[in-house]
Amino acid sequence: MVSDVSVEYTRGTPVVREASLSVARREVVALLGPSGCGKSTLLRAIAGLEPLAAGTVSWDGENLVGVPPHRRGFGLVFQDGQLFVHKSVAENIAYGLRVQRMPRHERQARVSELLELVGLAGYGSRSVQELSGGERQRVSLARALAPKPRLLLLDEPLSALDRELRDRLADDLAELLRSTHTTAMLVTHDEGEAKTIADRVVRMRAGRLES
C-alpha cells in the first residue's frame, strides 16, 4: 500500500524517509513512535493531505497519487474530532452519507446502527457541544465509519483524554474495529494503547519505519 514514500516540508529535508508498509484487509496496524518522528505526517500522506516527495500510495493495485482525499474512500479521525459544532450528533454522523446521497430512510437506519455500536443510543438529537470529550470522540468514530471506508486512519484519537478514559475507550475502540471488520491504521505514542487496539505494531523513529 505504501511504497518508498518520502515527505518533505522543507525541500531537501525529509520528514518521512522511504517508508514502505502494507495493511491486510480487516487488519488494524498501529504506527508507534515518539512525537516528531513523522508518524502523523505519514498518515496524512496516505490520506492524501500531504504531497509525496517520492514513492507511491496504492490500494488494490490502484495508484492513489494525485487522487484527492475525498475520493480515496478512506475515513479519518483526528485527535480533536473536528466535529461540526452547529450540527446535532445524528447530523454529524450522517454527513458522509449525505455526500454519498444515501436515501433518507437508509441514512437514518445507518446512524441509529452506529449510535448503538459506539454506545450512544438515544443521543442523536443532542448538540455535540453538550457531550464530554469521550462522547465526542465516539461521535467522530461513528461519523468516520458511517460510509464504510475501505481504510480508517486514526491520528492520536485518544491522546486528549485523561488516562482512565483513554484506557476504557482503547478497549472499546479495539472491540468496535473488530466487530465492524474495519481495516485501520492508528497513530499513537502510547505503547499500551497500540498493543490494546492493534493486531500489529510498527515502530517509527526519525522519519523511518523500523523492521
UniProtKB/TrEMBL annotation:
Ranges for domain ABC transporter: 1-211
Keyword Transport applies: yes
Gene3D superfamilies xrefs: P-loop containing nucleotide triphosphate hydrolases
Molecular-function GO terms, alphabetical: ABC-type ferric iron transporter activity; ATP binding; ATP hydrolysis activity
InterPro entries referenced in this protein's UniProt entry, alphabetically: AAA+_ATPase, ABC_SmlMolc_Importer, ABC_transporter-like_ATP-bd, ABC_transporter-like_CS, ABC_transpr_FbpC, P-loop_NTPase
Entry keyword set: ATP-binding, Cell membrane, Ion transport, Iron, Iron transport, Membrane, Nucleotide-binding, Transport
Cellular-component GO terms for this entry: membrane
Pfam families named in the record: ABC_tran
Record has Iron as a keyword: yes
SUPFAM superfamilies registered for this protein in UniProt: P-loop containing nucleoside triphosphate hydrolases
Protein name: ABC transporter ATP-binding protein
